[in-house]
């Protein structure tokens, strides 16, 4: 299941991340993903485990997984 919205200049993808429980968790995940090339916006919501990423082009899931792992959490896939 992929929730991906393409506009003329960006792609929005919603990922499911397990283990986030607070604002610090949201910040850690957002900070790591925002460093990926082409990412313009990241919104993480601990209560739902959803991370919404806006990027210039679709992101490589392995790169997103590595960023989430670096933050100390697990990418469960896309919503």
Gist of the model:
The protein has 79 residues and is of the alpha+beta class.
Model description:
The protein is an alpha+beta fold. Helices cover about 30% and strands about 40% of the residues. It has two helices and five strands, in the order ββαββαβ. Strands 1, 2, 3, 4 and 5 form a five-stranded antiparallel β-sheet that branches. β1 (about 5) and β2 form a beta hairpin. The chain starts with a strand and ends with a strand. The mean pLDDT is about 95. It comes from Streptomyces lusitanus. It holds the Pfam family HMA. InterPro entries: Heavy-metal-associated_CS, HMA_dom, HMA_dom_sf. Keywords: Metal-binding. This is Heavy-metal-associated domain-containing protein.
Protein topology:
Blueprint: E1 3-6, E2 11-18, H1 23-34, E3 39-45, E4 50-55, H2 61-70, E5 74-78
For the report, how would you describe the main beta sheet?
5 strands, antiparallel
How much is the average pLDDT?
Answer: 93
Helix content: 25-40%
How large is the count of helical segments? 2
Rg from alpha-carbon coordinates: 11 Å
Essential attributes:
2 helices, alpha+beta, single chain, 28% helix, 79 residues
């Amino acid at each position: 299941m992929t929730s991906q919205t393409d506009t003329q200049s960006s792609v929005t993808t919603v990922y499911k991340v397990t283990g986030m429980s607070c604002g610090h968790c949201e910040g850690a995940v957002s900070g790591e993903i925002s460093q990926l090339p082409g990412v313009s916006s990241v919104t993480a919501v601990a209560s739902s485990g959803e991370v919404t990423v806006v990027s210039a082009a679709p992101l490589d899931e392995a790169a997103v997984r590595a960023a989430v792992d670096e933050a100390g959490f697990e990418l469960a896939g896309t919503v």
